[in-house]
Amino acid sequence: MAIRWFYYAAPQNFYALAARLWPWLAALAVALGVAGLWVGFALAPEDAQQGEGYRIIFVHVPVSWMSMVIYLAMAFWSVLGLTFNTRLSGMMTRALAPTGAMFAFLSLWTGALWGKPMWGTWWVWDARLTSELILFFLYLGYMALTSAIDDVRRADRAGALIAIVGAINVPIIYFSVKWWNTLHQGASVSLTRSPSMAQLMLWGMLLMALSFWAYTLAIVCYRVRSLILERERHTAWVQALPEVSGARP
Description:
By secondary structure, this protein is an all-alpha fold. It has one domain. It has nine helices and no strands. The N and C termini lie far apart (44 Å).
């Protein structure tokens, strides 16, 4: 049986899929988040050098990962939208942006909370911190530009260019600690070597990362359904939906 790769590219098909997925993803996010916080803040041992203050990493590191991953996902959907001119691509990119901006803000905020006791200051113009701040501004710029253009198709194309060009900043964030002499510590988790932390610490961080992944997928599915209803409101299939037809007087 042939796989229908573009079946869910149709908004009406993805709308139904998202309705089934988001409640389960939201429940999974809550369960993983509770487990991750318990492991990270109750079971993981105190760090020998940083003391109890290191526990902010159980939030800081996963939100930093997600801020980069979501922007790459926006760039991916933008490429699909420009290449295949699919309506869903622009909606997915718009649905991802607010969550990515939130994670970028949390990355900067939790980093400041960690930096004050460790570095003695809330902020330094470190390469990684500065490039993460630029990422936050890219998210804000994308949302401001797409909201300022009334024609949604033109707005999607303009936003796609920002998402694609801005993606160059993501590897700069990731490799900044290797390319430049920075205050920010190197990666504790790597695909090419063993993690430089206790196993319980690693499990706490991974559980939180999975929780944020599930949260992102849930909120994007929920948000994109609203965008589909807004953009496709004049189509026959939307008018036939029980939640739409039942709401009309």
